[in-house]
Amino acid sequence: MIDTAPILFFDSGVGGLSVVAPTRVLLPNAPIVYAADSAGFPYGTRSEAEIAARVPALLGRLVERYRPRLVVIACNTASTIALAAVRAALDVGVVGTVPAIKPAAAMSRSRVIGVLGTAATVRQPYVDDLAARFASDCTVLRYGSAALVEIAEAKLAGCAPDPAALTRELDGLFAQPGGGGIDVIVNACTHFPLLEADMAAVAPAGVRFVDGGPGIARRIVHLTEGQAWPVQVGPAQVGPAQAGPAQAEDVLVFTRLGETERRLASALGFARVEAL
Ligand code: DGL
User: Fold this and answer.
1) Whose CA is nearest to atom 9 of ligand 1?
2) How far apart are CA 91 and CA 70, in angstroms?
3) Å from CA of 78 to ligand 1 middle
4) Which strand (E) or helix (H) includes residue 275?
5) Domain tally for the chain?
6) Residue at which a domain ends, from 171, 188, 211
7) Which of 8, 19, 75, 152 is catalytic?
8) Which residues pair with 274 in a beta bridge?
């Protein structure tokens, strides 16, 4: 393994930065390639067939170009639909992101859990399976939100979330029968932890949020145990604000690189921006 081989993070948009951030804390010297499928965004309103066809092919091209030591699908929608196909297609380790229902069940006192994801994620049998295995004594309510994905993208591009819009989306859970009892919300889309403080400010008091980011970061550390990383020279590195201090060589890749993506890249602070 060459020291400079990066970890490749993949999402439809900026959501995967919520997985990069806890990874940075544990592996500050890890070179990172962050790939956003801007041409395919958003995933949450697409069909299973579209995602299953798109994601393995894109990751194949990304792996060929960047030769990562590890691939992280930092997207619940892509992982719950295409993880097995991606693993079968690539000859590099692949870590997926799945709804954090297990930790939510461990945290919940009321035994009512809300799963907030994309529409494509919350309808997956994968979610039924997680609920049956890890939260069989809980009521698990689900809501798919496309609006929250857009609000998170806009926030990272510099536009503050509207509290009324967040309240409307959270009502998708709380207004369901039994929803008033929810005490833990699973952020089952990687975009949503980017809005956690904003959502907590409008959610009923005492509701807690959980997501898979910290667990994935620990898994990445485990899978790269004993591997060498580039040695940093000089003072603190420049890096994306949402993802913590970075290596100057970190790359942001878009599948479509237009004006919106260039503006986003500069708001995020990535020095290197490329088109796939
Ligand atoms: N961030 C993605 C997820 O975790 C998908 C957002 C979207 O493109 O709809 O599900």
Assistant:
1) 44
2) 10
3) 8
4) strand 272-275
5) 2
6) 211
7) 75
8) 253
